[in-house]
Design brief:
- With 470 residues, this protein is mainly alpha-helical.
- Helix content is 62%, strand content 3%.
- The chain contains 19 helices and four strands.
- It has a two-stranded antiparallel sheet with strand order 1-2.
- The longest helix is centred in the last third of the chain and has 32 residues.
- It starts with a helix and ends with a helix.
Length: 470
Amino acid sequence: MRPATWRGRVARAGDFLRDHQRAVRRLQWVIVGVYVALLAIPAVLPLPDRTASVFNNLTIVAQFAFWGLWWPFVLVSIPLFGRAWCGLFCPEGALTEWASRHGRGGAIPRWMRWGGWPVVAFALTTVYGQLVSVYQYPWAAAAVLGGSTLAAMAIGWLYGRNKRVWCKYLCPVNGVFNLLARLAPWHFAVDAEAWRTAPRRTESINCAPLLPLRTMEGAAECHMCGRCSDYRGAIALEARSPEAEIVGVAPGNGWETALIVFGLMGLAVGAFLWSASPWFVTLKQAIATTLVDHDIYWPLAQNAPWFVLTHYPEVNDSFSWLDGAVILLFIAGATVAVGGAVFAGLWAADRVLPRTHGLRNSATGQALGGRLAGVHKLAQGLIPTAGIGVFLGLTATTLTLLQHEGVSTGWANAVRFALLGLALVWSLRFEWRLTGLRSAAPLRRLSAVGLIALGLVPFCWAWELFFVRW
């Protein structure tokens, strides 16, 4: 197929989305209905017993749908198709925009524009989900997912008009999707010259995620809804290199680095590993012994409500206050140990390379300034590895559910380590290209990439412990 023909077909796909917005909205409402049913119905049913199966119990069906299929493969869809999930399918996005259409239309407050919300929202949601066992119990899923949805609708009703203010600023996975979408081989590109020469009287369009269309670069924040396709004859869906945005567009910043390094590669690792770790048991037993020796018994009580700590005595599964505290301690330790090692590798690599002063991104001409600007740019190269780590953690639940249904999973570790290896190779390729923006000396670049690879050792070791030793 000739390049011009391929380019035209890709652009027409964007036009197709633009021309079928009514069908998209209908599909969104169907998904909303399924989503609400999977949250609400299991919450009023008795907890499943050990004989329950995906073939005979709706609670297991919902568990498998949300945690076995929905979230792991939504995560995979982002680097493949950009944030099409957000723009075309997400029930929260549809509901917050609907609420905004009928709400009071208030101005977006300054506090909501704070750049740290993607990190804070991701961390709080991840940790809270572990404390209430969100993967196992329908009430916990209703609290985490349903609570997020209600908050999205409230924000939509309060702020903006026909906008997705929640998605732009407060959604717990917005930051993660923002990072992963930079790997997508598609984006809506803006032709600056065509924009300038378009007729002045051009009908406006509604960009629900509040993007400045005229200066839009990359796919990080675009929801791929297609509403702007061919707008002013200047915007079109185009194919691109999956490496183009990270190397040439995204400069990175402190909050993004924190989310990549300490969020996805530190905190998330601790959240996935604690339940399988013998270190967790050893630490809890040591603290419990110390408490008993000092006649302190209240932390051992299992009397917290289910929405604070896991509490399902009817199935012999309840957390004590000590359990909750040690979970927090374990996750914090993983965040510091694993994330700290990754950050140290990035910092050391940045010191090996020439300073960023006076250097610019190759595509945008944007200056790389600031004391840690080089670290932030290098951190962008770790997005593939950070993303695959979260995917591997989520699919651990998928495999557990498959095992419960009698499906053999002996192949799983080979696939897991193959995916992890490919992601590592891609990240190191990114780092090689990113170091090339600052130095042409092969030895200096190789030293920097080697230091980054050394910092990734604890991250890789954590997954080896989880999948093989524990």
